[in-house]
Write a structure and sequence with these properties.
alpha/beta; 7-stranded mixed sheet; elongated
Length: 193
């Protein structure tokens, strides 16, 4: 027999089966191990986000920030909070919350708007009764609010889910279109409310 034409030795079938088994296990278990490591060690986490407000992911409810008298409802809620008197920034957010509620169109029945303020001037309270008949009003405990929000100060607009959990927070400079887009996105993804 010619040594140049010698056939290479074949890999034993038992060893080939083990290699195939290891490859199949790596294909199945490898992505799970990679995903777990990405979560635990926070690497390759995308920096981009699809929402415009500050995400509240710690399970706080509206009662935890000092809103008095609010109970979980069957709808999503645009909640305006004012730790002091409801002045120009608070009044602008109340107006914005109503406009966003109207802007939801056919999904407007899945949301509501409300105000939680420590103090509402009498003339503005009368205006609220006349011009904002659907606006729900709650009290706000200043001490609890200051402690829970790390003294944010100023009026804020919050998106609250039907279970009463705070989802997103916006300050007085937020644009209505961005808040409307965020709320529409939440309503689209949500089966509740």
């Amino acid at each position: 027999m010619n040594p140049a034409l010698a056939m290479p030795e074949a890999v034993p079938p038992r060893r080939r089966g083990r290699i195939q088994l290891l490859l199949i296990l790596m294909v199945v278990i490898g992505p799970m191990m990679l995903a777990t490591a990405m979560y635990k060690f926070s690497f390759w986490v995308p920096e981009g986000r699809s929402y415009h407000g500050a995400m509240i992911g710690n399970g706080q409810t509206s009662a935890d920030i000092g809103v008095q008298g609010a109970s979980p409802q069957e709808t999503w809620q645009l909640l305006v909070t004012a730790p002091g008197a409801c002045e120009a920034d608070c009044q602008q957010l109340v107006y914005l919350a109503r406009q966003i509620h109207i802007g939801l169109g056919r999904d407007a029945s899945r949301a509501s708007h409300s105000l939680a303020a420590a103090d509402v001037p009498a003339d503005y309270a009368d205006k609220l009764k006349q011009e904002y008949p659907q606006l729900k009003r709650y009290g706000l405990d200043r001490g609890t609010y200051a402690k829970a929000t790390d003294n944010l100060g100023g009026a804020r607009l919050w998106i609250v889910d039907p279970h009463g959990n705070l989802v997103l927070r916006y300050d007085g400079t937020a644009k209505g279109k961005q808040i409307l887009n965020d709320l529409r996105h939440l309503l689209k993804l949500s089966n509740i409310g």
